[in-house]
Design a protein that fits this description.
Length: 550
């Protein structure tokens, strides 16, 4: 043992020397992260050496940039936690959690909240610790290649123990399942099986003994399969208790022999490792079931010094032994001791329940206060943003109005300038005309006459076009008249044809005199035109193809 301790101390000394060398290099080069990287690389396997390296950086920590200082503080707290330091304050952890909520990597955020949970746990604030552990679990990016599954398993392990202490066994089982799942992702087969084994106790507390036996058998086989022989045998302790309580003594005896011979938990005198003394109750109960009362009494009494459950289990076992022996005095004694221990357990449970309720009340009040402050801060922020937006809107409106005013003025100025230029051009043209008239009056008059003649020709042409269009419109209008429709009906081949009467021709001529007087006068003035010719002319004007004139 001395050789091993000396080697460990030597390794620690080497790490301290290396850290001083790195610190000197960092002081010269300003690259403190080299020392922090070195400490982080060994923090899981050799936390004491990592802590020594980090402590050696403390003299120069005041000059660190903020990011370097926070990382140094975070790694130092991690190393202290892994060295089983009991935290008495959570002030630094709160600072780190707040800092890494908006800085750093998901792993660093997870570590910060995990350390806050550890501090709250050490200070007896179970609800706050659970909340911090849950935030740590949520912070981890389990899809990332560099996710720290090793420490994420620690988060779920601490969370599961807290759930168990609060008698929240179903939640504890879920946390242990996550512990097992992320151990597998970390490539830790032992951790994977251990996470399954840890589920046995909460299942036992829930009364599901069949599930306990199933998991115990499964863990035993997996441990054996991957070469963890001692762990395979030590995983059977709860199964032994269940079997002896169920009266399955032959199966229990077989498991007990493997447990004692292969688990590595017993010394040469048959004493079990510290913290596992409850096994003496299982063994005493086994011997009581086999009617070996002396051996049963021996193991029940061996359990007494450890004061497990206020010795209620030990006294219960001894009571069973003396009842089997019909020893009335001892039965009375241990019945009283059983009752007293049970009263003490119930008082402790009640005190624990009050403590849990008080802790929950304090935490709820603290969270409510924090929520109220957050709400007030949010309201103030919203109010500030409202006024900023209002000011911005007013500024934009004023800017838009000014811009429009300038644009309007610019357009008005451009229009005035254009009108001014046109006026100047007209003025120059008139001045040229005036000058021409002054110098050559006759030429100017001839020019104006030519312009007037050209305009008269253009007006006459337009007038003729207008008259032609007017005549066409009049003919179209005439063709839609009632009289024309009457004449047109006489040409319909589907009906009996009727020749127009003399009165109809006279009425048609009167109609043409009203609508086309010039045409009628022109036709009437031609020599040799008969009434029949005049009627044919009128029908042709109305676009008739056939009718019998008279």
């Amino acid at each position: 043992m001395m050789g091993i301790d000396s080697l460990s101390n030597m390794q620690k000394l080497v790490y301290i020397i290396v850290s001083f060398i790195l610190l000197s290099a960092c002081a010269d080069s300003g690259k403190e992260r080299v020392a922090l990287d070195a400490a982080q690389a060994i923090i899981n396997d050799r936390p004491d050496s990592a802590l020594a390296m980090l402590d050696s950086l403390e003299p120069s920590s005041q000059g660190f940039p903020q990011a370097t200082l926070r990382r140094w503080q975070l790694l130092r707290l991690m190393a202290q936690n892994k060295c089983d330091t009991v935290f008495r304050s959570d002030s630094l952890q709160l600072v780190l959690a707040d800092y890494y909520d908006s800085h750093g990597t998901p792993n660093e955020k997870m570590w910060a909240h995990y350390l806050l949970g550890r501090a709250c746990h050490d200070m007896g604030e179970a609800p706050a610790a659970l909340k911090a552990f849950q935030e740590a679990a949520v912070s981890a990016d389990t899809m990332a290649a560099d996710c720290d599954f090793y420490n994420l398993c620690s988060v779920y392990g601490q969370m599961a123990r807290l759930f168990e202490s609060q008698h929240l066994y179903h939640e504890g089982i879920k946390a242990y399942r996550n512990y097992s799942r992320f151990s597998m992702k970390a490539g830790d087969m032992f951790g994977y099986v251990k996470g399954m084994e840890l589920q046995v106790v909460p299942y036992y507390s829930l009364g599901d003994t069949a599930k306990c036996l199933q998991i115990s058998k499964q863990c035993h086989d997996l441990y054996q399969e991957h070469g963890f022989t001692q762990a395979a045998e030590s995983a059977c302790s709860t199964a032994i208790l269940i079997l002896v309580e169920a009266g399955r003594y032959e199966e229990a005896g077989d498991l007990m022999r493997h447990y004692e011979q292969g688990s590595g938990l017993f010394d040469s005198l048959g004493n079990i490792a510290k913290g596992r003394e409850f096994y003496y109750y299982s063994k005493g109960t086994y011997y009581w079931g086999m009617n070996k009362l002396d051996s049963a009494e021996f193991y029940y009494r061996k359990l007494v010094p450890f004061n497990i459950n206020r010795n209620h289990t030990a006294f219960k076992g001894l009571l069973a032994v003396y009842q089997s022996r019909n020893n009335a005095d001892s039965v009375f004694k241990y019945a009283r001791l059983c009752q007293e221990s049970m009263d003490s357990i119930q008082a402790d449970d009640q005190s624990e329940a009050v403590s849990i309720a008080n802790s929950l009340f304090k935490y709820t009040r603290m969270e409510r206060t924090a929520l109220q402050k957050e709400l007030e801060a949010r309201q103030s922020w919203f109010l500030l943003m409202f006024f900023l937006l209002l000011t911005l809107a007013a500024g934009l409106a004023a800017f838009s109005k000014i811009r429009k005013y300038k644009a309007d003025k610019k357009a008005e100025l451009a229009m005035i300038n254009q009108e001014l230029e046109e006026t100047k051009k007209r003025k120059e043209l008139k001045e040229d005309e005036l000058e021409l008239m002054k110098t050559n009056t006759e030429a100017a008059i001839r020019k104006k006459q030519r312009e007037i003649t050209s305009l008269e020709e253009k007006a006459r042409t337009l007038q003729e076009k207008c008259e032609r269009l007017s005549r066409r419109e009049k003919v179209k209008s005439m063709m839609k008249g009632q009289l024309v429709e009457k004449f047109r009906s006489m040409t319909d081949y589907k009906s009996v044809r009727i020749s127009p009467a003399l009165e109809d021709w006279e009425e048609l001529e009167r109609f043409f005199k009203q609508q086309q007087p010039a045409l009628i006068d022109k036709v009437s003035g031609v020599d040799g035109v008969t009434p029949r010719d005049k009627r044919i002319c009128m029908l042709c004007m109305l676009d008739f193809s056939y009718i019998t004139p008279i």
